[in-house]
Amino acid sequence: MNAVAIVRLRAAAATRLSWRSLLISAGSGLAFLLVWQLFVGLVYSANATIPTPLQILDQIFHVDGLAFYVEAAGYTVSAALRGWLWGNGVAIFLGLIVVAIPALERPVMQFGVVTYCLPIVAIGPIMMVVLSGDHPKVVLAALSVFFTTLIGTVVGLRNVDRPMLDLVHVFGGNPRDALFKVRLKAALPSLFAALRIAAPAAVLGAIVGEYMGGTETGLGLMLINSQQAMEIARTWSIAVIATVLAGVGYGITSLIARLATPWAGDVTVDLGVGQLSSVAGMRGWLALLFSVLWSAAIILAAWWGLLRVLDVPPFIGKGPLEVWAYLTDPFSGADNCAALFAESLVTLRDGVLGLSAGMVAAIVVSIVFNLWPSLQRAFMGIAIALRSVPLVAMAPLVVLVFGRNLSAILVIGGVITFFPTLVNVTLALAATPNSARDLMTVFGASRADMLFKVQVPNALPALFASLRMAAPLAMTGAMMAAWLATGKGLGYGILTAGTASDYEGLWTRVALATAFSILLYGLVGVVERIVLAAYSASGSSRRRQSDAH
Q1: Range list of H helices, 310-372
Q2: Measured between alpha carbons, how far is 182 from 173 in angstroms, rounded to an integer?
Q3: What is the pTM of this model?
Q4: Domain interval for residue 431
Q5: Residue 185 host element (H or E)
Q6: How far apart are CA 199 and CA 377, in angstroms?
């Protein structure tokens, strides 16, 4: 059998597997809807906070009419698409610049981390007072997609076989030829992996912009109006439409990726770029301190520069010096600091609780999926689909179901951590090298030994990558919960400060929320390095003991 025949057989097998996976996912999706229908109709009907799928369809097609949602969705899609194009375009351009000029890597990447850690719920009110029209929605959508695409571009451009670059050089090619003829093709899988994440994120950014007001229509405005009017079926219907839009964007990008890169498998985006290789010893901690100071310098410079470039009126735009004066004012500074301290404690608590709840739940379900693959095949498609659900669309539903209490905070923060962690960790557990599995089998290891001594350590990098991705989103979830549910924390403080035209308090709270988001992102990276170093040292010790015996 020649090589061409082998390739054709593998392609046919892959196609059969793809169709089988699609059918299994469709069947599990229908089963999920059936269980939802029966549970709400027979068990949960008295609560009246969760409509059945049939009631949602009736609301969309008969009560309101599909045109009612299509018109609003058109405005949201328009803003999301423009933000997606701008954010991804700038990210790809900067990625090319970073690879072409390595000296610019550190400032560009640190700037990217800052943009990713900016809670869009926090900066939304500032965008509303600084920009006009639908520009706030477009900017928020662009910010939502920028960092992941930047990372995907840079990682992809560098993920190239060295012999290919040497071959270009041997045949007289220059660095530009190597970039456009070799690196760009090698970058496509990582770039499309980032673009898949960017599609739902752009929808989220646009809806947050509509949430803030300043627009006549849009899914975000409809969502908050229906929630405040306690129109439960309509609230769920809008959330379903928003989810479908995000899922369609994710699906279209995935289809284009499959057609453009048929040689590539599942690729994930690791948001750990810029983390320290080690925090052990004095040099590691000095490097950590330098990284923190460098990030702070970038934030302050960008903050000051944007106010000047956009020519924001001094009454509205408050810079670092005005924020410092707000905190140190001899008459009101102490009261301001006390209020901010109380709000910060609530937000940090809610963010950490949500992140932890989602992480624990995702790890448990990933292990269950690994032990019983039939469950994974049945429900993994649903998990991937729900990963694209915009947080803003789910938050009002969570408040309706769980109320305005700690349960809502845990669910809102946990959901945004759960799905990306579940998908990444499940794939990582399944990707354990066969050689390691065979070795454990030869030594008579049990299934539990295989899982906890080989597969779990192998999945740790994927777990921490997911947590880095989720940490800033957990802070966003905490502020969203404060805004919609509890009325406590920085999220509610930002809302009330903007309403009262307290711009010093508004900018100060946004700065604090951003700082806490960056801090949480960095702490996950530090814990990752410590844990992975400990596992590496433990593995080396076991190998030395084995060699001695």
Answers
A1: 320-328, 333-371
A2: 11
A3: 0.78
A4: 329-549
A5: helix 184-211
A6: 25
Q: What is the CATH number of the domain that holds 211?
A: 1.10.3720.10
Residue 490 within a domain: yes
- Cβ pair 42, 226 in contact under 8 A: no
Answer whether residue 324 is part of any domain: no
Question: Do 101 and 216 reside in the same domain of the chain?
Answer: yes
Give the integer Cα–Cα distance in Å for 472 and 354.
11
Same domain, 467 and 544: yes
Residues 219 and 185 in one domain: yes
- Whether residues 204 and 268 fall in one domain: yes
DSSP state letters, 439-507: HHHHTT--HHHHIIIIIHHHHHHHHHHHHHHHHHHHHHHHHHHIIIII--SHHHHHHHHHHTT-HHHHH
Strand intervals (E) in 158-276: none
* Residues 420-462 pLDDT 10s: 788 778 878 877 777 777 777 777 777 777 877 788 888 888 7
Same domain membership, residue 138 and residue 107: yes
Say if CB 394 and CB 415 are below 8 A apart: yes
Q: What is the pLDDT of residues 30-86, one digit of tens each?
A: 777 788 888 777 766 656 678 888 888 999 999 889 888 998 889 899 999 999 999
Task: Name the residue among 83, 121, 99, 108 with its Cα closest to residue 175.
Answer: 99
CA atoms within 13 A on the CB side of 305: 6
Checking if the pLDDT of 212 tops 90, the result is: no
> Same domain for 292 and 202?
no
